Amino acid sequence: MSCGYKLLSLEEAKAMNPEVVFAALPHKASAEACAKFADQSVVIDLSADFRSKTPENYKAAYGLDWSFPELQDKAVYGLTEWYRQDIQGAKLIANPGCFPTSTLIPLLPLLKAGMVQGPAIINSMTGVSGAGKKAVTNLLYVERDENSGAYNPGTKHRHQKEIFQEANLVANLESILFTPHLIPLKRGMISTQVLNIAGGAQEADFHQIFLQLQEENPFVFYTQGSLPQSRNVQGTNRIDLSFQVEGDKVMLFSAIDNLMKGASGEAVQNMNVIFGLDETTGLRLQGEV
Ligand SMILES: NC(=O)c1ccc[n+]([C@@H]2O[C@H](COP(=O)([O-])OP(=O)(O)OC[C@H]3O[C@@H](n4cnc5c(N)ncnc54)[C@H](OP(=O)(O)O)[C@@H]3O)[C@@H](O)[C@H]2O)c1
Known about the structure:
Layout: H1 10-15, E1 20-23, H2 29-37, E2 42-45, H3 55-62, H4 69-72, E3 75-77, H5 80-88, E4 92-94, H6 98-112, E5 116-126, H7 141-144, E6 149-150, H8 158-170, E7 176-182, E8 189-197, H9 203-216, E9 220-222, H10 230-233, E10 239-246, E11 249-256, H11 260-274
Parallel strand pairs: 1-2, 2-4, 3-4, 5-7, 9-10
Antiparallel strand pairs: 5-8, 6-7, 8-11, 10-11
Helix pairs in contact: 3-8, 5-11, 6-8
NADP nicotinamide-adenine-dinucleotide phosphate is lined by residues 24-27, 29-30, 46-47, 97-98, 129-130, 132-134, 258-259, 262-263.
């Protein structure tokens, strides 16, 4: 029985001159596939291969040298809510990591407005699909079911470097302690960030920024009185956001589906922007419940 699709070699795919190519491969293998199409197609890479602004940052995170340094300058970091204008003319998109997507969307506008400053403490929880399909012991059902814990805390996780890089392009954040936690969900990601309030910002100012974010971005939902929940965004390309002021600190809360807004949905959103389509084309706004 036909499955309705045909597997092609990269060479066969290239000969078909596709308008757009999505690469969802492990880093390094992804860059190699992307490089084959970079001269003719729009390429959207879901790996980390084109996200680093310097070879040192990539090496610190992934222990590798850039495979295609000549392509790095062409890559636009695909955080749609922040780089929409640059994405419009882009030929190569470095789709962001899932943790960076969940943290940077609420953080960057506040940094730009001078309303927060470091050091930042970020704790995130991710469903198991965030690690991909690799067969390793700590991802076995018996290890993960009814079990949660932190991993690669502080400055050890690769995405700490990605978040730090992008935040510091906007304002000096001093330092970020980022701790991911693996929780027994198939998909879903929750992030909580704690920062110092700067510039005399008041609760009403944070409220205003989040209202504006929601107004300008079809996938941003400001949950206001309630805290974001992973179930509400499951299967959607949404990011739900809220905040709470505590004395001289502000807490930022966000929820995404790591496989959608944290990966494939964000990639399709970027494609929509590049080709001048409605940004929500093919992407869900409503969750399962
Ligand atoms: N999972 C997430 O939440 C998430 C979020 C954002 C970004 N990403 C990034 O997106 C990319 C894909 O992630 P994933 O979670 O889908 O990974 P995954 O479940 O591990 O899938 C990787 C796929 O790549 C194939 N592959 C592995 N090595 C290859 C090679 N050398 N050449 C060609 N194909 C190869 C695998 O093929 P086989 O089936 O034959 O093994 C598999 O189909 C990664 O770079 C990841 O970091 C993932």
